[in-house]
Amino acid sequence: KVLKSGSCVGIVSISPGLLRAAEVILHSIRGNDILLMTANPENNNRLVALLKAANHVLCDGPSLSAVEDTLNKNRSQLMRMPYIHCSENYLSKDTINQLKKEIGVSN
Question: Are 43 and 36 in contact (CB under 8 A)?
Answer without folding.
Answer: no
